[in-house]
């Protein structure tokens, strides 16, 4: 791979995706995770601190080697109910009450394993999911998993969509509508592509048409670093813009192809893409941001909305496992 020249942007050195790996590319077979860090090979032990797991303390291949589907989402409760739901959907032996949190020794993240499915919470925002993904991707690597697909199942604000619509992300874009994620590394901005897997997204859309029980669309997902001002909300503790400014920004977003807004998709796409992992983002919209900012929908309705990405993903997993045709 040829290293590309750094670009000077806003007085910061910006390095395009991949160039930082070029000297130390570690080769794997096509279906394995590409952990692109030569230092890992020199370490006697790798402690996955925030997951409370490690290469010396746990037999990671034995614990996780069979994993094929890794599902992540913000809330610990959601990821526990997803694990219980998928246990029932796959008709696995044992009771759902026996599904315990593998990361119980830490209160940062929660992780549940159900047959070939791993369900993990990531908290809110890019820094939180990024820490979890570093450790999760190393976990999948140390466990020698093959053909793993990663999914984010989340909630979002809709842009021009009825509440309850499920959005399968086409491009994960930043707040300037660019399909990229910027990571500052040693004082330089590294730009990474947020590309998701087109084939997996198409399969998900096919699944939604088979289910035919809630609206599902494909569209761009805008990822912001804040829920309030960062998403153009007028109801935060701070707000420096007018209603018209907000609507103009949302219209621009809509015209660029954005259909929903959340807070993790760009770094999720960037890290999976850089590590050669097929990935998709499935988020339900809780409201239409053209109609307001506050989430005032009753709790039971929100609960049902949150289950929609789970229902879609369960169908996908069952098809992939050949349990349904
Ligand atoms: O997966 P979740 O539902 O946590 O994703 C969105 C983005 C933020 O993390 C959070 C804001 O309410 O919801
Ligand atoms: O509006 C919303 C709703 C959920 N999550 C977000 O990030 N934004």
Automatic annotation (TrEMBL):
Q: Which pathway does this polypeptide act in?
A: Pyrimidine metabolism; UMP biosynthesis via salvage pathway; uracil from uridine (phosphorylase route): step 1/1
Molecular function per GO: uridine phosphorylase activity
Identify the residues that bind phosphate: 108, 152-155
Q: What is the E.C. number? A: 2.4.2.3
Q: Which GO terms describe its cellular component?
A: cytosol
Q: Where is the Nucleoside phosphorylase domain?
A: 68-318
Q: What class of enzyme is it?
A: transferase
What SUPFAM superfamilies has UniProt attached to this entry? Answer: Purine and uridine phosphorylases
Q: Which PROSITE patterns match?
A: PNP_UDP_1 (PS01232)
Alphabetized, the UniProt keywords read: Glycosyltransferase, Transferase
Q: Binding residues for substrate, per the UniProt record? A: 231, 233
Reactions performed catalytically = uridine + phosphate = alpha-D-ribose 1-phosphate + uracil
Which GO BP terms apply? nucleotide catabolic process; UMP salvage; uridine catabolic process
Q: Which InterPro entries does UniProt cross-reference here? A: Nucleoside_phosphorylase_CS (IPR018016), Nucleoside_phosphorylase_d (IPR000845), Nucleoside_phosphorylase_sf (IPR035994), Uridine_phosphorylase_euk (IPR010059)
Q: What does this protein do?
A: Catalyzes the reversible phosphorylytic cleavage of uridine to uracil and ribose-1-phosphate which can then be utilized as carbon and energy sources or in the rescue of pyrimidine bases for nucleotide synthesis. Shows broad substrate specificity and can also accept deoxyuridine and other analogous compounds.
Q: Which family does it belong to?
A: Belongs to the PNP/UDP phosphorylase family.
Q: What is this protein called?
A: Uridine phosphorylase
Q: What organism does this protein naturally occur in?
A: Esox lucius (Northern pike)
């Amino acid at each position: 791979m040829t290293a590309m020249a750094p670009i000077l942007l806003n007085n910061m050195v910006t390095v395009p995706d991949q160039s930082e790996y070029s000297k130390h590319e570690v080769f794997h077979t096509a279906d394995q995770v590409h952990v692109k860090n030569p230092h890992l090979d020199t370490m006697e032990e790798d402690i996955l601190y925030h997951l409370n797991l490690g290469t010396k303390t746990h037999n990671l291949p034995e614990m996780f080697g069979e994993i094929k589907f890794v599902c992540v989402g913000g809330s610990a409760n959601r990821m526990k109910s997803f694990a219980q739901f998928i246990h029932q959907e796959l008709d696995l032996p044992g009771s759902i009450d026996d599904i315990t949190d593998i990361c119980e020794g830490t209160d940062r993240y929660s992780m549940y394993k159900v047959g070939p499915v791993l369900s993990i919470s990531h908290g809110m925002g890019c820094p939180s999911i990024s820490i979890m993904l570093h450790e999760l991707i190393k976990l999948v690597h140390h466990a020698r998993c093959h053909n793993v697909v990663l999914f984010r199942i989340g909630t979002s604000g809709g842009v021009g969509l009825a509440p309850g619509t499920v959005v399968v992300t086409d491009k994960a874009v930043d707040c300037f509508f660019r399909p990229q994620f910027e990571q500052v590394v040693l004082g330089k901005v590294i730009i990474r592509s947020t590309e998701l897997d087109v084939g997996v997204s198409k399969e998900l859309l096919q699944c939604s048409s088979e289910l035919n029980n809630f609206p599902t669309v494909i569209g761009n997902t805008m990822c912001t670093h804040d829920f309030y001002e960062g998403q153009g909300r007028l109801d935060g503790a701070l707000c420096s813009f007018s209603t018209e400014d907000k609507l103009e920004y949302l219209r621009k977003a809509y015209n660029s192809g954005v259909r929903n807004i959340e807070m993790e998709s760009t770094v999720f796409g960037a890290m999976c893409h850089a590590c050669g992992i097929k990935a998709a983002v499935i988020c339900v919209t809780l409201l239409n941001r053209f109609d307001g900012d506050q989430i005032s929908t009753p709790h039971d309705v929100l609960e049902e909305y949150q289950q929609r990405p789970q229902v879609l993903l369960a169908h996908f997993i069952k098809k992939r496992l050949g349990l349904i045709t």
